[in-house]
Amino acid sequence: MAKLKVTILHDVWEQGPPEPEPEPVKAPRGKDGKRRKKKHPLYDREEIFEALTNLGHEPSYHVLDGKNQSLLSLARCGADLIFNLTESYAGDDTMEKNIAAYLELLHIPYTGGGPEALYLSQDKSIAKKIFDFHKIKTPDFAISYKGRTEHSHDIEFPLIVKPVSEDGSIGIDSGSVVDSVKELMERIHYIHEEFDSPALIEEYIEGREIYAAILGNENPEVLPLIELDLSKLPKGTPRIAGQDVKFDQETEAYKVTKSSPVEDLDEETTKRFQDTALAAYRALQLRDYGRIDMRSNKKGQVYVIEANPNPWLSSSAEFTMAAKKAGYSYTEMIDKIVEMARARSM
Length: 346
Hints:
Elements: E1 5-11, H1 44-54, E2 58-64, H2 68-75, E3 81-84, H3 96-106, H4 115-122, H5 124-133, E4 141-145, E5 148-152, E6 159-163, E7 177-178, H6 181-195, E8 199-203, E9 208-215, E10 221-222, E11 226-229, H7 243-246, H8 252-256, E12 258-261, H9 267-283, E13 289-296, E14 302-309, H10 318-325, H11 330-343
Parallel strand pairs: 1-2, 1-3
Antiparallel strand pairs: 4-5, 4-8, 6-7, 6-8, 9-10, 9-11, 9-13, 11-12, 13-14
């Protein structure tokens, strides 16, 4: 294996949700049964740095802080490969695709989705239209922006309303699911005022939330399915993965929800999820790795909710959980991602 200078590229969040705190790591017990000094939890970039070091590469960090100087210094960083963890630029997550495009101009190989995949995945309305074209089930939807309806299926309540181009569950909370025209109008207004964004209005699929992690390019591998168990959310709370569920560790919603490998699906249903995820992955031109979020209704129909290029790679994240279930160590998972990105430049 060639030794590479790998620059781990990440951004500074000035807006939007905080970077998720790493899960606490329990220190091992000694022979006397007492715990030793508690291990300090790492962020995903630190875990990736450690894995790259173990693989014999020379990792370094580069922060995009929203200033031109950080872009100029990136062009001169001398990296053989960029491990791209960026999700925004100067606090604007719609600029994520531009960072990948900039790396293309520099002819520096990088991990994960290209600008096309990042653009198609972020604009949920375009992604859903592509899913429709490819006969991939996705909830019927409408787009509304300040009195204009840009696209509309014949949708029925209950509905879920969210910004059309935000990541990380931004704009999604218990008020996102609406059951009346009054609630719908209020929520659309909230999205317009708070985010200056078109509102994506889609039919709410009541059912299990299943994630499919996918690793690969020419012959991508669908890793074991992961479920975000929302069944223990407080009574009357919509079963959705809002910001409180994903980021706010002090809330009851965060404490009672957890992700784990799915163990109770029959072979036919599992294959339905896997085939749907793989079709979505290919339709949006994702590469190296990605995660497809899906739901199934009471009839067993599988719907794609959204696609996530370059999902979080912390050791506690769903993608890593799926890789571990498939038999990959964390270091092996990072190695595969690096090798796939490197192969594109050869």
